[in-house]
């Protein structure tokens, strides 16, 4: 199944736009309870205004909230960014740390966020257990665990460490494009022959094909038709 994912999504990557570790960290914090597409609409203006951890630490709350308003829960997110900026300035000279144990001490940062930052900003392998990842690996029978940390460790034992970051991207891509929560596109899924949950969604190719999303749709359907 992993080899198939590699073939289906060779160029999978974080779908948040960023140019440095701080921007990625902020973008991931903002992505809670909203879409990456929405975050990417907000961050160009935000990143132009707030370029350093000190900028966030010294931000005027009402102004910062206006930048974040359309991301949902904007007051809580503004709190996180103010606290994040202050913590980075006070503890890490304004730089984003590159260790999991340090990252998870920051306001608004859990293991999922930390692993995204480590894998994509610092090339430190990490497994990102978001809702898509957890749903899919349970559907596939890779683990029965529900707790994200236990899921992370269980899958980490199955897959070589160097593959963790790309595996995370590819599983999340598949969850967004094919293996939907309510109606997975089973009949048009390239992984269907190996999937123990085949039949959770429509099994007819033509019906399932209409459920496949994303810019890779033609590539996905071509591989599914072959297999």
TrEMBL record:
Domain of life, per lineage: Bacteria
Catalytic activity: 2'-deoxyribonucleotide-(2'-deoxyribose 5'-phosphate)-2'-deoxyribonucleotide-DNA = a 3'-end 2'-deoxyribonucleotide-(2,3-dehydro-2,3-deoxyribose 5'-phosphate)-DNA + a 5'-end 5'-phospho-2'-deoxyribonucleoside-DNA + H(+)
Note on cofactor: Binds 1 [4Fe-4S] cluster.
Keywords from the named record: 4Fe-4S, DNA damage, DNA repair, DNA-binding, Endonuclease, Glycosidase, Hydrolase, Iron, Iron-sulfur, Lyase, Metal-binding, Nuclease
Domain HhH-GPD: 30-177
CDD domains linked to this entry: ENDO3c
Enzyme Commission no: 4.2.99.18
SUPFAM superfamilies linked: DNA-glycosylase
Keyword Lyase: yes
Cofactor(s) needed: [4Fe-4S] cluster
One GO MF term attached to the UniProt entry: class I DNA-(apurinic or apyrimidinic site) endonuclease activity
Chain sites annotated for binding [4Fe-4S] cluster: 179, 186, 189, 195
Similarity comment text for this entry: Belongs to the Nth/MutY family.
Function: DNA repair enzyme that has both DNA N-glycosylase activity and AP-lyase activity. The DNA N-glycosylase activity releases various damaged pyrimidines from DNA by cleaving the N-glycosidic bond, leaving an AP (apurinic/apyrimidinic) site. The AP-lyase activity cleaves the phosphodiester bond 3' to the AP site by a beta-elimination, leaving a 3'-terminal unsaturated sugar and a product with a terminal 5'-phosphate.
Name this protein carries in UniProt: Endonuclease III
Source species: Amycolatopsis silviterrae
């Amino acid at each position: 199944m992993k080899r198939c994912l590699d073939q289906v999504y060779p160029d999978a990557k974080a779908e948040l736009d960023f140019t440095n570790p701080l921007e990625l960290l902020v973008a991931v914090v903002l992505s809670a309870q909203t879409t990456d597409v929405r975050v990417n609409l907000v961050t160009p203006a935000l990143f132009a205004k707030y370029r350093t951890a000190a900028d966030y630490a010294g931000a005027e709350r009402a102004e910062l909230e206006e930048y974040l308003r359309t991301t949902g829960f904007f007051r809580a997110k503004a709190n996180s960014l103010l606290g994040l900026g202050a913590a980075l300035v006070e503890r890490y000279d304004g730089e984003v740390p590159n260790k999991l144990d340090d990252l998870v001490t920051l306001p608004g940062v859990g293991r999922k966020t930390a692993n995204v930052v480590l894998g994509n900003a610092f090339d430190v392998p990490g497994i990102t257990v978001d809702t898509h990842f957890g749903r899919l690996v349970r559907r596939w029978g890779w683990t029965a665990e529900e707790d994200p940390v236990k899921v992370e460790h269980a899958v980490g034992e199955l897959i070589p460490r160097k593959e963790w970051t790309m595996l995370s991207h590819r599983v999340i891509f598949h969850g967004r494009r094919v293996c939907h929560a309510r109606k997975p596109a089973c009949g048009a899924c390239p992984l269907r022959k190996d999937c123990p949950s085949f039949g959770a969604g429509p099994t007819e190719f033509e019906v399932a094909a209409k459920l496949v999303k994303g810019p890779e749709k033609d590539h996905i359907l071509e591989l599914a038709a072959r297999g």
